[in-house]
Design goal:
- By secondary structure, the chain is mainly alpha-helical.
- It is 56% helix and 0% strand.
- The chain is built from eight helices and no strands.
- Helix 2 (29-41) crosses helix 8 and helix 5 (110-121) crosses helix 7.
- It is globular.
Length: 208
């Protein structure tokens, strides 16, 4: 059955649910979008359900977070829908990052890039292949610049004097082509991992 893209109303519901738990360390929708983009563009796709503790933060262990099994199921269905929307954009469409404006109306992109970095950290060693590639490593530059701009350790911040609005606009515009480039870089590696998995498991489970 072809995937039905999430509607604007679905995204409002997803955003509202995530916002309820922000005080418990839950990701907002912008962070989630970056996080999923890293998982889908990277060396090995990790399913959304496996990442619930990372997405929800302390709300994952809070029994009052979802009043019923059904509300949790609805939330996971929205997560899967968003995951699928990103997968389809990367596999033949045009991926555009979900970037929200702050209270001052400025789009900064830090949340998105911090979410992407969190996704990279799950498979740190495998991402090393990209860092070590002279041709492809520059794809990470815009994401790392904004992902580390607010780092608590000033030495980790790429721009000592902050990022000008002109440079920020360039970095934000580079996110989409970078994610497509990263997805292409890891495409062969993902295929190889899938083949090895199938060879080691003679009775592969059907993936839904």
């Amino acid at each position: 059955m072809p995937h039905q893209a999430l509607s604007e109303q679905d995204y409002q519901r997803l955003s509202a649910t995530l916002s309820r738990f922000v005080g418990q360390g839950c990701m907002n929708l912008e962070q989630l979008d970056g996080f999923f983009a890293a998982l889908l563009a990277g060396p090995e796709a990790i399913r959304p359900a496996e990442c619930l503790p990372l997405i929800l933060g302390d709300a994952f262990d809070d029994e009052s977070a979802f009043p019923s099994e059904k509300t949790l199921e609805q939330f996971v269905t929205l997560l899967r829908g968003h995951w699928q929307d990103i997968a389809e954009a990367l596999n033949g469409g045009e991926f555009q990052p979900w970037l929200d404006a702050g209270a001052d109306g400025e789009v900064r992109g830090n949340d998105w890039c911090e979410g992407f970095v969190a996704g990279m950290e799950l498979l740190n060693d495998d991402w090393g292949m990209l860092f070590d590639s002279p041709d492809s490593a520059p794809l990470l530059e815009p994401i790392m610049a904004l992902g580390f701009e607010r780092h608590p350790d000033a030495d980790m911040r790429p721009f000592v004097d902050g990022i000008s609005s002109e440079v920020r606009a360039e970095l934000l515009a580079a996110i989409s082509p970078s994610v497509h480039g990263i997805h292409d870089f890891f495409a062969g590696i993902r295929l190889q991992l899938e083949q090895e998995e199938q060879e080691s498991d003679p009775h592969p489970r059907h993936k839904h």
